[in-house]
Amino acid sequence: MLRTLYIRDYAIIDELEVDFENGLNILTGETGAGKSILIGALKLMLGERASGQMIRSGAKKAIVEGVFDNISSPELDQFLEEAEIESQPVLILRREITEAYSRGYINDSPATLTLMRKVAAQMIDLHGQHEHQSLLKIDTHLALLDGFGGLAGLRSEYEDAYKSVSDLIKQREKLLSNQDSLEVLRERLAYEIEEIDAVSPQEDEEEEIRNEMHRLAHAERLSGSAASLYSMLYADDDSATDRLSIAYSELRDLARIDHTLEAACEEINQANISVSEIAAMLQSYSESIESNPARLEEVRDRLGALDTLKRKYGGTIKAVLAYREQIADEYATVVDYDAARKKIEQSLADAQRTLSDAALLLSTRRREVAAQVGATVTGELECLGMVSGRFNVRIDRRQDATGWITLKTANQQKVRYKAYRHGMDDVEFLITTNVGEALRPLVRVASGGEISRIMLAIKRVLAEAEQFSILVFDEIDIGISGSIARMVGKSMADLARHHQIIAITHLPQIAALAKAHYVVEKPVVKGRATTQIRRLGPEESLEHVAMLITGAEVTDAMRQSAKELMEIRNES
What is the pTM of this model? Predict the structure, then answer.
């Protein structure tokens, strides 16, 4: 919902901040007080182009900022993620306007007008004379119909089938596009497989082979040095073990005199044992090392072959093995092209049958829901004073000789239809408001109060399916009065159970139902007129509703009438 609207130095507004409530928010005020200015400020947050002429005289910059909460949706989150703007529980839209530029911000991050329009379009639906009327966009009709009918499950099944067909067609196209070069491809793959298999690399062998190569390359030095060390430690006269034995014997004599030397004596003995063991190991190692030029050459060739494979097929032995597995599948397809093509064609035929069944089931259910929506919205139109109004949902299918969907006619003839991502149906809302007039697309109906009432009727019926959390109605009451105005007010109050509504009205029947009632005024402050807005308490709201009834001096009778109107909002 729109929690707070802040405006500074815009048109004749000096500075104002207003907090809105959930449910039905009503704005009233005398003509010229500046209600339309508030709507204009909202439009700036919707990404409408700005002009320096909007800046209050004497100011350098105009600011409009809206704070929103509880407005998260997958589409909105996606827009923010793509723009690298962090998604937060509270969303802040801000526009700054100077003579030289207009800038937009989302959560304090700079944003283009296009992005602001996309983000705002996920939250706000503004019903003025022309702009931001989502139901006039045909591409929203199908989604609303599906939402009203609870068809998400059927639609998801269709979309899964659609994706399967799409993927198989891509595979077939890739196979067909390679047909002319299959022989070249087959030869290349065969060569690569043969080259890798000739070496038959093992994932963990490289380090072991390199170690062996180093040993073979330095065999003489390793053997000679090990033998020399053996002699130095054990075999030579005056070797390390001999000296340690002498030291041990002398220290042992001293330890008989001073027992504190016993530990040192034991350490020397252990050192002698360790040196003897190392000497034995070196002797064995020296004898095991032999010069083998043939084996050295063999190892070097092996490493060279592995390095060649790495350079050509991925940089590591692991990558080479992964590539070998990949091209094996490709080679199998190329070698047996006809079998692969037939397999894809069979899979595609099966997938298209599944798609056709899912499309028919979804379309049939949509037509049932469409009839229900048409009748219900027509009833709402009558309640809103449009007794001659009729509403209908037109669902068409488009024949296509190459369509993915095939259905049988009554005489068992097969007909192909165009498949869309969300079904086989073209959905459009139709309406007529006058006796004897044919149904026409909703986008061609009259503007102003009539279209606002039409929108209200449709939204009243489709409330739970509608994605927008905030609805703004700018003078929906044009051309209505009396009992019709009361019905319009009740319809708006019902709609406000699912949406936050901000509505400008001149009718007491509508104003009386407000959960939050605001008055827009234009006092003169320091010699300048300025638009201000304030929330009314219960008694002030009663007084203003009474003023809307009489249009003149408020009497007790008018206050009683206003009280009776306001009691309607407590009815369930």
Answer: 0.59
